[in-house]
Amino acid sequence: MKYAVLLPVAAGVTADPAWIGAYVRHAEACGFESVGAVEHAVVASGYSSVYPYDTSGKMELADDLDIPDPLDLLAFLAGQTSRIGLATGVLVLPNHHPVVLAKRLATIDALSGGRLRLVVGMGWMREEVEACGADFDSRGRRADEQLQVLRKLWADTAPEGATHDGEFFQFKGAMSYPKPVQEGGVPIHVGGHTKAAARRAGRYGDGLQPLGVAGDGLKALIALMREEAEKNDRDPDALELTLGHTFAGITPEKSERLAARGASRLVLRGNPTTDLNEAKDELSACAERLGLA
């Protein structure tokens, strides 16, 4: 099992360079596999969209909370560390033009020595997606095409370059360098709780990160991802499953049970605190309980 750390955005500390740098260096020293950075390009004050992962319909983050750009944050953390993986969790894909995004992701992967993992979602906040210039209702079709564009621009297509003629994006002879260090490009995982997310992971992704799903619902999403992979001549056994848990609640026994359900990675979240020593102690205690290096 791989153990990742969700950066404590709710504490309002992820834009503090000294705080977040020390926190992630400690996570690396504790033996955690990776850290994950969330995204909201904007949060609409008093948004009317329904947050699907809480019965209140509202997310826990305040409208005016510091939420730094995840890719810029991960690039900063790459320079602060040497081993720990760098992941989005999740990147709101409709907010980004895929040609520009392909270059940004490849650059971080190259400069970090191949440590980047991309977790994407379709976004639930209509106000945010529309503020970024995308049509909310067609974001699923757009996302499928975006993932194809990323793969094409990361592939070695020289000297002709990459060509794409789709519904939303078109280009010919596009040469995008540097390429990602990782063979096959930056791993792409799909986050979400819907059947569409599971199908997208099976068709285009390297894994699924279900959000707010458990029990029979989780089993159904996993089965759907695997079925879609087989339909598209992809190996379902090569796809990873990432689940969420808490620092306080995870134990080796719970980890084993989640592994038996197919999980290969757990993204752990802690109690929001601005006290760096308290946050580091939480990492240390969890790492010791799980037997990490």
Structure in words:
By secondary structure, the chain is of the alpha/beta class. It has one domain: TIM Barrel (Alpha-Beta Barrel), CATH 3.20.20.30. 38% of the residues lie in helices and 17% in strands. The protein has 9 helices and 11 strands. The strands form 2 sheets. It has an 8-stranded parallel barrel with strand order 1-2-3-5-8-9-10-11, surrounded by 6 helices. Strands 6-7 form a two-stranded antiparallel sheet. Helix 2 (70-78) runs parallel beside helix 3. The radius of gyration is 19 Å and the shape is globular. This is LLM class F420-dependent oxidoreductase.
Key structural traits:
two-stranded antiparallel sheet, monooxygenase, 293 residues, TIM Barrel, 38% helix, eight-stranded parallel β-barrel, alpha/beta, 9 helices
Write the topology of this structure:
Layout: E1 2-6, H1 17-30, E2 34-37, H2 70-78, E3 85-88, E4 91-92, H3 98-111, E5 116-121, H4 126-131, H5 139-154, E6 162-165, E7 170-174, E8 188-192, H6 195-204, E9 207-210, H7 215-231, E10 240-246, H8 252-260, E11 265-269, H9 276-290
Parallel strand pairs: 1-2, 1-11, 2-3, 3-5, 4-5, 5-8, 8-9, 9-10, 10-11
Antiparallel strand pairs: 6-7
Organism: Actinomadura geliboluensis
Protein name: LLM class F420-dependent oxidoreductase
GO molecular function, one term: alkanesulfonate monooxygenase activity
